[in-house]
Amino acid sequence: MDIYQTLEIVRNTVYATVLFIALVYSCLILFIPRFRHRTNMFILNFCINTIFTAAYFIFYFYGIYYDMPQSMCVLFQYAFNVASVQVPFAFVAFSVHRFCVIVYHIKPFFKTKNWVAICIATQWIAQLLISLPFVFESYEDCTSNTVWMGCYTLITAVILPSLINTILNIGILICVRRSTRRTHSQESTGTGNRITHRDISLIKQMVFTFTMFIVGWTPAYVINTINVVIYVDFSILMMSVYLGAVCLLALIINLFVYNREIRNCVFQRCLCCVNQS
């Protein structure tokens, strides 16, 4: 077994670990009623998107597309762009939700589960629609790639979500700064925007995790696009892929560690199992 085969096993193991953790995380939120609040619904949505992304790239890097009939290439390439944009679009859905909750705090609708459902449903519809240009492309085989396809994936998976998230977070920051300048008399009458420390901490955490994803996955998309025009050494291409896989694993672990209620629940269950044995 050479070094490349070993690295392929490591890469697929990382993706499988991501898939497993995201699946366990999702089950905890789905099957334990007290965890089904608004924030955890977005984490559940993130985990489901991560499961689809990890599963797709496991199949992708196993080279299953080599045995696909040409008629399936359109679906395969379409799924590639969907898998690429799922995770960043999940962050955008959360940012839209928090922006409306904080900026339009006097409107109770933005604090309901219906608004959560609208944000998540819109995200899924958007990521399916934005990948449609791949359906209208003609492919010689499932490994076909063009400059416009690489650029389109880079724009939709990195640049567009980053731009939207930056605008929304700047809007939240402006709102927070205005809120902190209000007088105590305004706050006592209830006219001020009540932004809790938990809101600020949650926003910081999501900005951090989104930045981690962008830093980890941007090199892979950039190199994938450049590789169409000029040859890029295979080891460099694979290193960018490994970076993306490791960052996705670090991201899902970070979300688990940050979620105190679920983390404590898991630790307590583990301790109970150990004590019983």
TrEMBL record:
* Domain G-protein coupled receptors family 1 profile, residue spans: 16-258
Topological type in the membrane: Multi-pass membrane protein
The terms describing its cellular component in GO are: plasma membrane
Protein name listed in UniProt: G-protein coupled receptors family 1 profile domain-containing protein
- List all membrane-crossing ranges: 12-31, 43-65, 85-106, 115-135, 147-176, 207-230, 236-258
Q: Which domain of life is it from?
A: Eukaryota
Q: Which CDD domains match?
A: 7tm_classA_rhodopsin-like (cd00637)
